[in-house]
Design brief:
elongated; 75% helix; mainly alpha; 2 domains
Length: 85
């Protein structure tokens, strides 16, 4: 890989690498590898459901009858809305 960069950034990388006792190339590669791992980790943790999982989730939502607690809550909401009118 070859990268082009501004002189200020090159100097920054060289200074940081020197502080760690490694070459600028080693610094760039290790920093890029760390950033790549972080990026992939974040992407994998937010991966969407597979089509099969999505269909199963929707079926579960569609076929669920409301519980008594939910019906009570909905009735309470209706009573509150009527009282506030």
């Amino acid at each position: 890989m070859e990268q082009r960069t501004l002189p200020e950034i090159k100097s920054l990388i060289e200074d940081a690498a020197a502080q760690l006792g490694i070459s600028p190339s080693e610094f760039v590669v290790s920093s890029a590898a760390w950033a790549a791992r972080e990026t992939l980790s974040k992407v994998e943790s937010t991966r969407l459901l597979t089509p099969e999982d999505c269909a199963a989730f929707v079926r579960a939502l569609e076929n669920t009858e409301p519980s008594q607690a939910l019906r009570d809550l909905m009735a309470l909401d209706e009573e509150t809305a009527v009282a506030g009118s």
